[in-house]
């Protein structure tokens, strides 16, 4: 039996000797000789999307508790899964109204129920060939395929699409931490070996990864086992080499893909203020790491961290969700927000309204900067200047670094010439520090302590190579 310390927990880490097919790519700083991790084009394209949704809809939707987590004997009755109004186009409507650019579907969660008609068969411990018969094909809505409907809708709405598949837990097969549990089996569970389980995982991943187009993201929640790693890596190379992989590296620096992303370490929707595009751990990362491994921040719309639809479960208020946006996307972290259809298969009206409200705020605040006629310039000293043609009210700044050749800015200061009634006509208004920080990366949003009326903005930086800027923009959203 494989012990839990053989589970590859899926952080973009490297300790000791490097191993595996994928080695980190980096260049050497011309300034201090440090390593500058280099991204793949797929990682940069994924960061560009900024917002996605993680769709939870399967048999756990019909439970009072939030899924089968930590209840290893629970195999919910398949007759529970009886949605009457599955509307995957409606799911995409909410994703688009939020401003999401990709959607990842939970195809199989920890209960073991598959929301597509899996045709996988396997041998049980009595050497009988049996079907994997805990799927939508055996449910009251047999004949439907939610995976296919989801993919069709995502393509229709021009959203990237991907799959979440729980590798390390499957209650139907009596598996926890990628191990078949010893002893007795609970009602509804099937008696198999560890080797059989690994083959089932491979076969079902093959079904998901073949025939559904190019996937944007593949989720390994909790990682994968050492015995599964090689087959998963080979299958990814053959079928989905372009996908970014959530938890795509293990703690020894062995990766199943060149395009890993890391978990931020919390499901609250808050990245650390200092959050790098590089690093080894499930936190703010490490600017000195040779691994380019951006962070993804997954969180829920419902309160109490509930992922699956909960009857009468309150929603987080719009003010809190706006704060989530600023503490994820505004801190160089992709925001992946839960989308949880109700037991009919539709998005509840209250949920849809909140997605739209958040999307409207983001668009109204950030789609168009103030001072469109301002003069922008930068220099080799790492400075960026915005000269305004008149005193302009602003309350925040958006900084974006061009990371094509790595994340190179190590700290920054934002200075402003602030006009008021005493100096509005003065030519020599002094600069005043209005914000500062360390990591910029794909995007950093700084909200000032209070609105100001500025005539000029100067951003100063420290760096390990001369920065290239994507953009610097000023906004007023008070």
Task: Characterise the protein shown here.
It is a single chain. The protein is of the alpha/beta class. Helix content is about 20%, strand content about 25%. It is built from 7 helices and 22 strands. It has helices spanning about 40-50, 90-100, 145-155, 195-210, 225-240, 320-330, 350-365, and strands at about 5-10, 25-30, 35, 50-55, 100-110, 120-125, 130, 160-165, 175, 180, 215-220, 225, 245, 260-265, 295-300, 335-340, 375-380, 385-400, 410-420, 430-435, 445-465, 470-475. The strands form 6 sheets. Strands 4-5-8-11-13-14-15-16 form an 8-stranded parallel barrel, surrounded by 5 helices. About 45% of the residues are buried. Belongs to the glycosyl hydrolase 29 family. This is alpha-L-fucosidase.
Brief sketch in words of this structure:
The chain has 478 residues and is of the alpha/beta class. The chain has helices at 41-49, 88-98, 146-156, 194-209, 226-239, 318-328, 349-366; strands at 7-8, 26-28, 35-37, 51-55, 102-108, 121-123, 129-131, 160-165, 175-176, 179-180, 217-219, 224-225, 244-246, 260-263, 295-299, 333-339, 375-378, 384-401, 409-418, 431-437, 444-463, 469-475.
Query: What Rg, in angstroms, do the CA atoms define?
Result: 24 Å
CATH architecture of the largest domain: Alpha-Beta Barrel
Helix and strand sequence:
EEEHEHEEEHEEEHEEHEEEHEHEEEEEE
Q: What structural class should be given to the helix and strand makeup?
A: alpha/beta
Number of strands: 22
Q: How helix-rich are the residues, as a percent range?
A: 10-25%
Mean pLDDT: 93
* Strands side by side in the biggest sheet: 4-5-8-11-13-14-15-16
Q: Would you identify the CATH H-level superfamily of the largest domain?
A: Glycosidases
Q: Cα distance, first to last residue?
A: 58 Å
The residue ranges in which pLDDT falls below 50 over 5 or more consecutive positions are: 1-7, 9-19
Shape descriptor: globular
Strand content: 25-35%
* Tally of individual domains: 2
Query: What is the highest CATH level, the class of the largest domain?
Result: Alpha Beta
Biggest β-sheet description = 8 strands, parallel, barrel
The total count of helices amounts to 7
CATH topological fold name of the largest domain = TIM Barrel
Enzyme class: hydrolase
Protein name: alpha-L-fucosidase
Family: Belongs to the glycosyl hydrolase 29 family.
Pfam families: Alpha_L_fucos (PF01120)
């Amino acid at each position: 039996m494989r012990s839990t310390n053989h589970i590859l927990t899926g952080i973009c880490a490297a300790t000791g000797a490097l191993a595996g097919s994928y080695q980190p790519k980096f260049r050497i700083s011309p300034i201090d000789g440090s390593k500058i991790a280099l991204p793949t084009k797929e990682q940069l394209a994924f960061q560009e999307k900024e917002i996605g949704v993680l769709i939870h809809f399967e048999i756990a939707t019909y439970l009072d508790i939030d899924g089968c987590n930590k209840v290893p004997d629970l195999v919910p009755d398949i007759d529970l899964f009886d949605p009457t109004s599955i509307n995957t186009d409606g799911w995409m409507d909410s994703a688009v109204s939020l401003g999401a650019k990709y959607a990842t579907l939970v195809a199989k969660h920890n209960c073991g129920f598959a929301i597509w008609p899996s045709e996988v068969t396997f041998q049980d411990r009595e050497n009988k060939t049996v079907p994997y018969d805990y799927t939508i094909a055996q449910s009251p809505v047999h004949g439907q395929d939610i995976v296919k409907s989801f993919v069709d809708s995502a393509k229709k709405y021009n959203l990237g699409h991907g799959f979440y598949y729980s590798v390390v837990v499957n209650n139907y097969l009596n598996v926890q931490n990628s191990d078949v549990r010893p002893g007795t089996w609970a009602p509804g569970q099937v008696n198999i070996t560890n080797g059989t389980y690994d083959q089932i995982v491979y076969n079902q991943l093959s079904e998901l990864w073949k025939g559904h187009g190019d996937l944007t993201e593949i989720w390994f929640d909790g990682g994968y086992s050492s015995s599964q790693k090689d087959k998963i890596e080979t299958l990814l190379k053959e079928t989905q080499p372009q996908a970014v992989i959530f938890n795509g590296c293990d703690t020894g620096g062995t990766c199943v893909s060149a395009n890993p992303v890391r978990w931020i370490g919390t499901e609250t929707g808050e990245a650390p203020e200092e959050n790098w595009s590089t690093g080894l751990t499930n936190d703010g990362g490490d600017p000195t790491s040779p691994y380019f491994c951006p962070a993804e921040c997954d969180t829920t719309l419902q309160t109490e961290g509930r992922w699956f639809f909960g009857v009468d479960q309150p929603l987080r208020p719009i003010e809190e969700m706006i704060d989530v946006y600023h503490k994820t996307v505004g801190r160089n972290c992709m925001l992946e927000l839960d989308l949880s259809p109700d037991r009919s298969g539709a998005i509840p009206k209250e949920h849809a309204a909140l997605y739209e409200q958040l999307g409207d705020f983001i668009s109204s605040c950030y789609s168009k900067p103030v001072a469109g006629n301002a003069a922008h310039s930068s220099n080799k000293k790492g400075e960026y200047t915005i000269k305004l043609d008149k005193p302009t009210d602003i309350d925040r700044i958006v900084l974006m670094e061009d990371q094509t050749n790595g994340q190179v800015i190590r700290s920054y200061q934002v200075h402003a010439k602030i006009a008021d009634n005493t100096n509005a006509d003065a030519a020599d208004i002094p600069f005043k520090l209005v914000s500062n920080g360390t990591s910029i990366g794909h995007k950093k949003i700084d909200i000032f302590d209070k609105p100001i009326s500025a005539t000029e903005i100067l951003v100063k930086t420290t760096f390990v190579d001369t920065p290239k800027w994507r953009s610097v923009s000023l906004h007023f959203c008070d």
